[in-house]
Every structure is written in C-alpha cells, then in structure tokens.
Specification:
Strand content: 5-15%
Largest sheet: 2 strands, antiparallel
Structural class: mainly alpha
Order of helices and strands: HHEEHHHHH
Shape: globular
Helix content: 40-55%
Distance between the termini: 24 Å
Number of helices: 7
Strand order of the largest sheet: 1-2
Radius of gyration: 15 Å
Amino acid sequence: MSSTTYMTLEELKEEFEFLGDWEARCDFLIDLGFELPKLPDDAKIEPNRVHGCQSNVWLIASVNEEQEPVTIRFLANSDAMIVNGLIAVLMAIYDDKTPEEIIETDVEEIFHELELDRYLSPARKNGLFGMVKRVRQIAIFAASQDSE
C-alpha cells in the first residue's frame, strides 16, 4: 500500500471550527472524499467490504512491522460521496497509528467534537460505526500478533 498522507485530526477539527455550520462542513467532507486515494478494483471484494454500511465500503489495511513501534495504514473507498468524506475523517483519526493508539482512541468523543453525532442520519451513523468496528478489529488482531 502506498504511503498516503491524510489530513490530521487537528487540521480537521480546525477546519470544522472555521466552517461553523453543518452545510459547509458537509460540503467540506464531500471535497475530502474526492481527495481520497482510489482503492484498486481488485481490492473491492467481499472480504474487504465493511458490513453495516448503507453504501458499499471497502477497507484494507497494512501493518508496518518494519518500524518501531508498529503502525497500521488504511485505504478505503465507498460508492457514496459523503461516505468517502467520513472515511477521510476516519483516516485522520486512525491512519498510521499504533494498534494501541487505535484501540485507546475515544472515537465517540471525537465524533461529538466534530458534531457528527448530531448531524448524521441513523443509517450513516451505523455505517460509520461499522467502519470503526472494522478498524478496531484490525488493530486488536495486529496487537495480538505483535505480542506473540
């Protein structure tokens, strides 16, 4: 997987604060989604599909064991523009973090700070938490492999 640099969580929070209202933030999320690196078509297979999402979402991860501490890189895409923006938010939170950092992240607090908990529909929230669950499962598995 190529080394992609996503927006940092701090940059994302600053941008959301600057934009203020949800409509501007939503437009910004859609723009972020357009900037996501594309997932290769051969990665859009059932084992990489995230369940619980209203839209199709595929997520792959690579564990970088050659550096200390070990980190995880993620690449994901959806067939829905707003969901790609939400993926960009998740990349700001989780990409290139250690398994422990991922597991310990209070993502609900971050979603609250960004007001995603307030403005997303229940179906979008379910999908977002489906992606979070998948990322956490990958991190838990990587942490268990690292401790062996």
